[in-house]
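does this look right to u?? DAU version
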Amino acid sequence: MAGTYQKKILITGGAGFIGSHVVRRFVQEYPNYLIYNLDKLTYAGNLENLKDIETSPSYRFEKGDICDSDLVSELFHQMQFDGVIHLAAESHVDRSIENPLEFIQTNIIGTVSLLNAARENWKGKESGKLFYHISTDEVYGSLGDTGLFTETTPYDPRSPYSASKASSDHFVRAYENTYGIPAIISNCSNNYGPNHVPEKLIPLFINNIKNNQSLPVYGDGKYTRDWLYVIDHAMAIDLIFHKGKPGGTYNIGGFNEWKNIDLIQLLCKIMDEKLGREKGTSEKLITYITDRPGHDRRYAIDSTKISQELGWKPSVNFEEGLEKTVDWYLANEEWLQHVTSGNYQKYYDKMYLHRS
Ligand code: NAD
Ligand code: DAU
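got this back:
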C-alpha cells in the first residue's frame, strides 16, 4: 500500500460528530489521499454518519481504542502515516462531571499513546509530517462580560473535560519541543449541525421539542457560547492541515455569541414554524433546572489569526445554520431513533430526572 497515495492520513474519532464531517470532507476533496479512520465506536461514534462515503476506495475504517498503544503503534508501522488529525475524545462536560476518569483515559492517555507512536515511527524523518490535535476553547476558562479568547490567552481549565483537553494540548507541545514532532493545535468554539448526539444543548432541545418534552435550561439561562456550524469547522481543519504553520495554534470561531436562553427562544420559533405548531408552543416547554456544577459563564473566540493568515471565514450565518440543522433532524428520523434507543434513555433519566 505504501507509495500508492499522495498522503496517508490517520483521523481519530472519525465516526463522531465533528470527525465524520472531517472524514467526509477529506475523502471527497482529496481522492488521492488514503483516509484511515480509527474509532472505538463509543456511544458517540456512529458509522451511520459515514454511510455515503464508506465504500470509497481511499477510505478505511478500523474499530479500535487510541489508548491501546500496541494497536496504535502497529498501525503506524503498517500504514506509515504522513499526518494525524486527532479528534477522538470524550467530549461532553456533563459526563466528565459524572466520571472524570474516562476523560483522563481517552483524552490524556489516548493522546499520549498516539504521540508515542508518531515519535517512534517518524523518528529521523519528521520533515513533512504533521500531528494535528483538535482542541477546544474551554481550555482558556471562562470570560466575564467582555473580552475574547486569543491564541495567547493563558490556560485556565475549570471542568474535568477541559482539564483533560488542556493536559492533552500540553502533551502535544511537550512532544513537539522534546522529540521534534511537527504539531499544530486548533481550539474551536461550540459546534452545531447534523449528526450531533442529542446530549448537547442544540440537538437535545430539537429532540425534546419534537417529542413535547421539557427543555431543561441550566441556572439562569444567561450563559454564553460562541456557535459555529460544523461544516465550517471541517473547512477550517482542512485549511489548517494543509496551510497552517507547524508549532502554531489557531483559534476557530464565528464571532457568534448567544446567551443560551436567546438561542433556545430562536430554536423554539424555528421548530414551531417547521412543525406547523402555533407560535409560542415550544417556548412553553422551557424549564429552569439546577445549574451545571462549575458552569463556565461565557466563551468567545477571537478568530482573527486564522482569517488573516489562512483566509478562513464561516460560510453560514447562525439563523441559516440552525434552520439547516433543524431540517436535518426532522428529515433523519431513523438516525435520531437509533441514537436515542439503547442506553440513551438511562443516561437521560440519570442526568435530568432528579434535577428540578
Ligand atoms: P464526539 O463525542 O461526537 O465524538 C468523539 C468520537 O471519538 C466518537 O466517534 C467516539 O467513538 C470516538 N472515541 C472516543 N473515545 C475513543 C477512544 N478511546 N479511541 C478511539 N475513539 C474514541 O465528539 P465531537 O463533538 O465530534 O468532538 C471531536 C473533537 O473536537 C474532540 O476532541 C472535542 O474535544 C473537540 N471539540 C469539540 C467541540 C464541539 O462543540 N463538539 C468544539 C471544540 C472542540
Ligand atoms: O466550547 C467548545 C465545547 O462546546 C466543546 O469542547 C465540547 O465538546 C462541547 O460539548 C461544548 O461544550 P458546552 O458545555 O458548551 O456544550 P453543551 O451543549 O453541553 O452546553 C451548551 C450550553 O447549554 C452550556 O451553557 C450548558 C447549557 N445546557 C446544556 C444542556 C445539555 C443547558 O442549559 N441544558 C442542557 O440540557
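Residues 100-122 form the longest helix (23 residues). idk if thats expected tbh
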